[in-house]
């Protein structure tokens, strides 16, 4: 039975060193399975050693807690999809194969390597292999964002010619070879898990069709599920907005800050708090926004970085969580955290954001990368009656029992499937 399987979860980072959504999802899965009495091991990449290793010899794999390990990816190629150092790759493959697991569950392929996956499948033909796809790096060379490099236009479908327009220094042959290599490896997985219907559709269009490719939302973890959801007073909270995350160029914080002055003209009681960055961080990335930041005065506050474990509690301090990303997103953890907190959302009308937030029920949509439309929505959202309605109908997140059952289904042996059939999928 699947619940008796020995499982190795392999992630592109350990959240001790990087707190992105994918690595948090992988480690929370490890903690949940471990606490449920499952036989599980966590192995994560880490940047510790990537520079240190240039001058000193270090171990490729290092213990990092009870049934946890980290490995250095210093021997990987620059794009971190393959290994330049075949010896380090072999050491890691031997270590993983020697764990003697029934299931190897990969969260991502970046920093892990398509060649490592291929070699591990050859070393353990009797094991089952599962992949959770957190974004679209295999499809898009532009950080997996599917946003064009010459502007911030969305890209809706890859092709060698389209990709060459974004990366004119590459070749058609390289794009074709890259796709063929990654598609070949991903097609050999027994199950491919997608955290959203949106990303499943994108990978299917790209050519990745598997007999088992379920949509399973990332699990927030037992600790967050144990916290009670707050019931907010809409009269007090409706005009309070919050942004949570890093101020990268794809997260749309500049769109939100451009929208704020217009929203304040519509309702001067609106206040916005930026969680995840200091004022200096934002202006370093978006220096042209300084006049708007100054003009906002006390209506804008920068709360600095926060621990992900505190996210749900912090979201309870605002009336709306704004997710203004200009790229598609897949299954943003900030949306799940807001739903757990009981705080409705305002999100861009594309990708996984539009899928996870039902307009008028879980929150509101605005036109992607459009500050004027975002300002309009913020003014509407500051109405206590609308805040009360969305707060009452906002869905909670997936529970522990449902999550473990979905994993068991993905891990179960496929009837009539053999290692030879995996090899034939190449």
Automatic annotation (TrEMBL):
<dbReference type="GO" id="GO:0016757">
    <property type="term" value="F:glycosyltransferase activity"/>
</dbReference>
<dbReference type="Pfam" id="PF13439">
    <property type="entry name" value="Glyco_transf_4"/>
</dbReference>
<keyword id="KW-0808">Transferase</keyword>
<dbReference type="Pfam" id="PF13692">
    <property type="entry name" value="Glyco_trans_1_4"/>
</dbReference>
<dbReference type="InterPro" id="IPR028098">
    <property type="entry name" value="Glyco_trans_4-like_N"/>
</dbReference>
<feature type="domain" description="Glycosyltransferase subfamily 4-like N-terminal">
    <location>
        <begin position="20"/>
        <end position="211"/>
    </location>
</feature>
<keyword id="KW-0328">Glycosyltransferase</keyword>
<dbReference type="InterPro" id="IPR050194">
    <property type="entry name" value="Glycosyltransferase_grp1"/>
</dbReference>
<protein>
    <submittedName>
        <fullName>Glycosyltransferase</fullName>
        <ecNumber>2.4.-.-</ecNumber>
    </submittedName>
</protein>
């Amino acid at each position: 039975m699947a619940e008796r399987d020995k499982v190795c979860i392999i992630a592109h980072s350990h959240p001790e060193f990087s707190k992105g959504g994918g690595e948090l999802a992988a480690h929370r899965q490890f903690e949940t399975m471990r606490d449920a009495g499952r036989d599980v091991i966590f192995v994560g990449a880490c940047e510790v050693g990537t520079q240190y290793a240039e001058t000193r010899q270090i171990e490729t794999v290092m213990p990092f807690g009870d049934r946890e390990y980290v490995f250095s990816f210093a021997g990987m190629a620059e794009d971190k999809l393959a290994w330049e150092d075949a010896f380090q790759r072999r050491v890691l493959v031997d270590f993983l194969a020697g764990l003697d697991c029934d299931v190897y569950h990969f969260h991502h392929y970046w920093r892990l390597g398509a060649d490592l996956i291929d070699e591990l499948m050859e070393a353990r033909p009797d094991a089952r292999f599962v992949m959770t796809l957190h974004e679209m790096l295999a499809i898009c060379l532009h950080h997996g964002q599917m946003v064009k490099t010459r502007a911030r236009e969305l890209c809706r479908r890859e092709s060698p010619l389209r990709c060459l327009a974004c990366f004119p220094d590459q070749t058609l042959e390289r794009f074709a070879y890259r796709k063929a290599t990654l598609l070949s490896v991903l097609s050999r997985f027994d199950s491919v898990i997608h955290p959203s219907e949106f990303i499943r559709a994108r990978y299917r269009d790209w050519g990745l069709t598997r007999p088992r490719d379920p949509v399973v939302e990332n699990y927030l973890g037992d600790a967050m599920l144990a916290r009670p959801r707050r019931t907010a007073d809409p009269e007090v909270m409706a005009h309070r907005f919050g942004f949570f995350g890093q101020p990268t160029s794809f997260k749309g914080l500049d769109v939100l800050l451009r929208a704020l002055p217009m929203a304040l003209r519509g309702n001067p009681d609106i206040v916005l708090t930026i969680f995840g960055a200091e004022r200096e961080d934002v202006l370093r990335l978006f220096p042209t926004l300084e006049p708007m930041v100054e003009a906002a005065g006390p209506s804008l506050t920068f709360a600095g970085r926060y621990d992900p474990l505190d996210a749900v509690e912090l979201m309870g301090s605002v009336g709306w969580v704004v997710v203004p990303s200009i790229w598609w997103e897949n299954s943003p953890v900030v949306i799940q955290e807001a739903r757990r907190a009981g705080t409705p959302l305002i999100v861009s009308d594309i990708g996984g954001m539009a899928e996870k937030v039902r307009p008028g029920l879980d929150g509101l949509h605005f036109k992607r990368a459009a500050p004027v439309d975002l300002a309009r929505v913020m003014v509407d959202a500051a109405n206590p009656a609308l805040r009360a309605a969305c707060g009452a109908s906002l869905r909670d997140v997936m529970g522990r029992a449902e999550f473990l059952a979905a994993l068991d289904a993905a891990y179960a042996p496929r009837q009539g499937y053999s290692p030879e059939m995996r090899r034939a999928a190449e």
